[in-house]
Specification:
Structural class: alpha/beta
Order of helices and strands: HEHHEHHEH
Number of strands: 3
Strand order of the largest sheet: 2-1-3
Number of helices: 6
Length: 247
């Protein structure tokens, strides 16, 4: 009887086996590479991170003086010969009160806060003082003004080109009539009445009576300047600006 041999079928290795083998070899290779890098000496270089080319210096504005000011290099945007692409027209309307004149009309350093800090200005010149302060380079504003700032920020596209002054007008009611009309203060008045005044309404009424009903249409904005102190100004002037310590 013939000895018939049964052929043996050899199973081919699966694709999964080869993938696993390749991954194992990659892991071994990475391990050997990292080990060799760890044993090699570190490359020479800087001992510390270099200093910044343009270091940032943060300083509280309350601690700064004019000695800290550094003008922006380049174009002098305060040059009056430069004309903006768009001009801005401003009306300055100045008002005082029967019980409160403009502080700057009083003798120098005469009020409780040590103001005014400049020589007194005649009442009729107060509106023009502010018009010049906003648009001209003067000693009192250190050569800087609103027009200069707007021109600088917009790179010459926008500037304060016209400032017209009106007044001064005397308001029909005392100072406190307009200043104590909110925050539940309107009953805390010197004569016991209830303060209910609106400064804008009475101010504009005097202005329109003097300059005409349609005067506001001629301007991009109205700046109403009134005599006395604002609430925040009092906190500053009679607080941390006047008293440097608790004692």
């Amino acid at each position: 009887m013939a000895n018939n041999q049964v052929p043996v079928k050899r199973r081919a290795l699966s694709t999964g086996f080869w993938l696993i083998l390749i991954l194992v070899l990659i892991v071994i290779g990475l391990f050997l590479f990292i080990s060799s890098r760890a044993k090699s000496p570190a490359p020479s270089g800087l001992s510390s991170f270099p200093e910044p080319i343009d270091p940032q210096k943060v300083q509280d504005q309350d601690q700064m003086t004019w000695a800290d000011y550094r003008p922006i290099p380049g174009q002098d945007w305060a040059d009056p010969s430069l004309k903006p692409e768009r001009g801005f027209k401003l009306a300055v309307v100045a008002v005082d009160f029967p019980d409160q004149p403009f502080v700057m009309t009083r003798p120098k350093g005469s009020d409780p806060f040590g103001n005014p800090q400049i020589d007194p200005i005649a009442r009729e010149n107060v509106p023009q003082f502010f018009a010049d302060f906003f648009t001209k380079s003067l000693a009192v504003n250190h050569g800087l003004n609103i027009h200069h700032y707007w021109m600088w920020q917009s790179r010459g596209k926008f500037g304060l080109t016209q400032v017209d002054t009106f007044g001064p007008f005397e308001m029909p009611k005392p100072h406190w009539w307009y200043g104590l009309n909110e925050h539940r203060q309107n009953k805390s008045t010197p004569d016991g009445s209830i303060a209910a005044g609106r400064l804008e309404k009475d101010c504009d009424g005097l202005w329109i009576k003097d300059a005409g009903q349609d005067i506001r249409k001629n301007y991009d904005a109205i700046l109403r300047i009134y005599a006395g102190y604002d609430e925040t100004g009092v906190w500053m002037e009679f607080g941390q600006m006047k008293f440097k310590s608790k004692d």
